[in-house]
Each structure stands twice: as C-alpha cells, then as structure tokens.
C-alpha cells in the first residue's frame, strides 16, 4: 500500500473542502472496500489523501419524518438491519442490509459507502502482486476481458460505455463505430447510417480512401484480424447513396441566414451539409469545373470512382445547396464581396500548391498532384519508360500505381522513411508492391541528373539516417552515402502547400499564421468575426476525414454564431450488446480485389461487401465497454423504493443516481452523500432476495428487490429491481407492466419473467443467471 495523508473530518463541509483541494483525495466511509483496493494496488493511481468521514458527528441516524424515513449516510448496515423503521412495509431495506457480507463487515460498512462502492469484477480487482493489475475498460483501458474470457458472474443484459472506444477515439471525426455496428447486427441500416452521418456525411467516399487507423487499435487484433471497419462503412455508404432521397433531405424550415463556403472539398461539403440541414441558405464557390476537391481530382479512379463523388454532389444540391463552379475567389469574386453578402463564411481551399524543395534540376520533374489531376492527358501520350516516384505517402502510392497502369516499364519509389515509418497505409504499400513497384526506403533527394539535351537520366540520392528530431518534428538527418536511381521521368509526391493569396490584401495579413496557413481556434473561427476555416487550408495537408471533422466543427460554430445552435442527439440508454458467437470469428471479411492482370485506371479495383457480408463482419465487433455488474445490495432496494440520495449540494433521485456504473461519477469534486430519504410504502409488501455461492460472504450473483401493492388479490402496483445481472441496478419495467392489474399465478410469473428478460444477451458462461432471475420473480410472488 502506498503512503497517503489521513484526515479525520469534523464535518461534511471540511471533508468537501479538503477533497476539492487535493489532487487525488478519496473519502472513506466504512473502509471495508477501499482499504482492500489500496492494499492490492489494483488501481492505476493511488490517493494522496484519505478523508475519514466516520468521525463526522451526527451523521449516523434513522429518523421517522412522517411520509419518509431519513437515514444518515454513515449509519452502519447493522444499524439499518436492526432498526424498527424497517420491520414492516420497508422490510426490504433491512433484508438487503442483512444480506451484505458478514456481521463483522456490517458493523463497519455504512449505507453511504455501500451505495457508492466500486465494481467487484475479478478482472478489475486482479491484484497487482499477481502478475500485474489489469487495465480493463472500467479503469481506463480499452477492453473488457470478460467478453472473450471467463464471464460466469458478469452481465446478462449487456455492457455500458466507460469512455470513448479505442476505435472511435482513433477516428479523427469520432465516429461511434461500435454503435453503428450494433445497429447493423439488428438489421437497422437506417439507424446505422444516421449514426455515421452525425459526424461524416460522405462515408461512401471516406471508406474508400481513409487510412482507417481505427482498425489498428481494434481489440480483435489480439485474437485475429481486426474488424474490417472500412469495409462495413463502405457497405453502409453505398446504402446511403442508393437511398440518397432518404438521407439528404431538404430542410423543412428556412432560417433566412446566408452562408458562403469557399472551396468544395471534404471540409466545405461537410459544413454545407450540416448548415443546410439547419435551414440556412448555403452557396459554395468552387474554382474547378466540379466540386469535390481532392476526392474529385487528386485520387485515382480505380480507388475512388468519380461517379460516387458526383452522386454525392447531386444529393447535396438536391438539399438546396448552391454550387457555383468555375468561380475562383480572388479573381472572379473577392472575399470582401462574399463576406458582405453572407452572415458567415467558411474557407476550405485545400492544399494544391507545389512545394519548392530547392534541389538542382527540380524544374525537370513533375508534381505528383498535378500528375493525378491530369492523368487523362497521359493516357493519350507515352509516359517515361523508367519512372521514379519520390514520397512515402498515399499520394506517392497513387502516383506509382497510376504510372504502372499507364504502361511504364519500371516504376521505383524512394522515400525518406523506413518501411514502418511510411505514412502510406499498409494496404496501399502492399498493392503497389503487388503490381511491381520497387520501394527504396531511407533515401532523400540530392539532385536531378540530366543529359546535355535536358532530358532526365536519374536522381542522386543521399541516405536518410532519421526523419524526425528528438521532439518528433520533421527534421531529416542525412549520412554520407549516396546512390543514383536511373530514371527518365521523376514525379515528386513529397507533399503539397497551401496557397492563401485568394484572401486578398484585406484578409491575408489578418488571417494567416506563421506557417502560412489560416489561423483558427478550436471552433474553427478565424480572427475575423464570422469567418471560419478548416481542412488543409487551416491545418496543412492531411487526410479527408480530418477535413470532414473540421467541417463539422465549423458548421456547429457558424450556426451558433448565427443564433441557431445545433442540438446534439439524445444519448441512448440501452446496454451494449454483441454476438457471443460472432466475436470468436478470427478472419475478417474485406472487399474482393480485381486480379492484378485485370486492373485498369478507370475501373474500381475492388467490389464492396454485400449487405449480408457486411452484417456478418459487424457480428465480429465486440462492442467494447464494461460488462461487470453492480455490487451494491442497498442500491437495488433504493431504486425499487424510489428513494432520494441527498448530497452536500443537492438531492438526486435514485433512478438518476444509479444510472451510472459508479454512482460517484455523477458527483462534483468533493461532493459527498449525506443522507438517504426512503418513502414509506403503506399497503406494500416488500422484500429482497439474493442468490450467492456462500450465504454469509459473497456478493450477489442475482438479486431482486420487490415492492407489491395488492387490492382484493390483484396487483395494483409492482416495483422490481434486479441486481447482479447488469452494470447498474435494473428496473424490470416490462415485467411490472405484465403484473399490474392481474392476480398472481405461476403462469403470470412466467409471463413476467419472459418480459423482463426479453432483451437479455447472456455471455458464454452465465446463461444460468436467467433461471435464477426466474426463480426470484416466482418467489417474490409467493410461488
């Protein structure tokens, strides 16, 4: 046990103040749980201060207050068990208190401590001294070990999120990946689409070009292939586009506010979508013949067929978004003119400018992005026989593959990075090598070698020792070794630059930062009121999904600026569920690739998964969260009796207090439970049933708190709360609805049980809990 300061509190006020002022202070009410936790060192951090609440005077009591019974938070469970206030209609309270552990523990444990105790899962409680503590999802880790491990004492109703899943956190847009996977498993594709489109209105595009680093942190990687997130997203995206009228609807209202967007790339189109949904008038000024930005012009057809981009643009214009193509801001119209006619403006001009490397002979090379934009011109003329591509990102891979498919006899690629450092995705690197591209890692550009007639003959390179400095900044270091790569065509794909000259004299100096980008805050607002920016123009060259994130953030900020804040969708309250068989499938399903010999420049290389195949892949998702069960016996009773939990600052209904896996997470720093108020239940029959392995020691495997009111043998009110079967105490409302208005019979008890467990999803080892729940419902009704 690590050292900590100890304080005997003289009042709740003092305890609150001390806890607020400490970094990792913890209150101790009974000590039966917390001290064991500290001794076994199961938590990543130990408290630096322990505030003993049991020294607070007058905090232990049971008071009859007419229509309710008030119990002090520091009342021991033994005192609760023996108090006459809980001998009649509130007998369930005494029974629950009596069921807790042993008499010795009940003499020390307090009501407040029991209500606030932490989870009892054995993975969570695994001692640090026995092979090291387990950093499970409940302790800030990424997974619940019970999903694919031993789980006989875990939830049969599903799990709960404890924080962002690793896959969602890895996604720049924060897509709730497990949530839409669950909807697909339920065959609710519309709901899956809606979840994705909360943060990404173009999954049919991103799924084809995103590096999908989300898959690299998928917990299935420990058991086999990661879930093919991009493949499932692609199937959903195709579904969305096939039903565009359903998902890209024109708004029913108009706010009268006017928004202008400069640039129709991923960020601009995203902002346009969300702002138009709010009812604002949206106009996009696009320099090129068609909107879409890099997705229209900078990604080869075989990776992203342009008809998908055009279909998306058609859907967006169908919402009422106006796109003015062939309109270059700064030449055809000024930003000042646009701003004067708009309530807000969003800038998304991308990164299209070629960076100057400063090497000899650079003017003889071609710019990779221009090469991709103008690839159709190369289809009508001969490309070099021996092409050398410089760069290690996905653009470089696209250039190299395009050169292969244009008929180059040999394509080589050189880059500064070592293989494991290359920014290109592993799939794109593998595809390039599959088609014969030779990759040379660790080489930088020194000079272009040319013949007397000015034609390229090769590139002199120098070996790169390291790409970044000790602080992780891009700062290549070179050795003494040099090497010549022969080539008659060199294409530079070493990055792009942002050009902000379009801002004009008025805005350029005001908006730019030291990097030559548009300076923005966390809400994508610039220094000019009402003007926002995002994508490459504000952050530098990056991937489409980051631009989409920027567009979404900007849209929310712009709408709020105009007086129309966007409301976040209501949070769901259902438990997480997964397929207990599907998660053990170790092989992932991916798109079907076209054979190498049949690949071309203008036909997509792969075929999307069918909806059935995508659904099967979604069944591999573990829906990671915490699948432990609530540990507090007293919590079950307090929820069944509609008690109120009083703290140092407010009163919280039991239904709210026990909605969180660890109730104290709902409290502010230093906030403490001081009292519990339990309504009297005249005319009710209450009780508490608990199944455990050892009668006098263990926590509940299943438990049931019940309160029935009967008139003439008919149940007129029923309150049932199950414990030990879900991450929180579970009100069995469906069973209550079955029971009310009927006379108790075994057949009615069976019906109530089926209603209560309709949504149960037992794990591999705990389906026996269903029978225990059934037995307790029968017993509560007298059978």
Explain what the structure shows.
This protein is an alpha/beta fold and 783 residues long. The protein is built from 29 helices and 27 strands. The strands form seven sheets. It has a five-stranded antiparallel sheet. A five-stranded parallel sheet has the order 8-7-6-9-18, with helices on one face. α9 (189-197) packs across α11 (229-242) and α11 (229-242) packs across α24. The chain is elongated. The two termini are 49 Å apart. The model has no long low-confidence stretch (mean pLDDT 93).
Oligomeric state of this protein: single chain
- Provide the gyration radius in Å: 32 Å
How much of the sequence lies in strands comes to 15-25%
Biggest beta-sheet profile: 5 strands, antiparallel
Structural class: alpha/beta
**How many individual β-strands?**
27
Give the averaged pLDDT, no decimals.
93
Distance between the termini: 49 Å
| Unreliable runs | none
Helix fraction bin: 25-40%
Strand order of the largest sheet: 4-5-23-21-22
**Count of discrete alpha- or pi-helical segments spanning 4 or more residues:** 29
Coarse shape: elongated
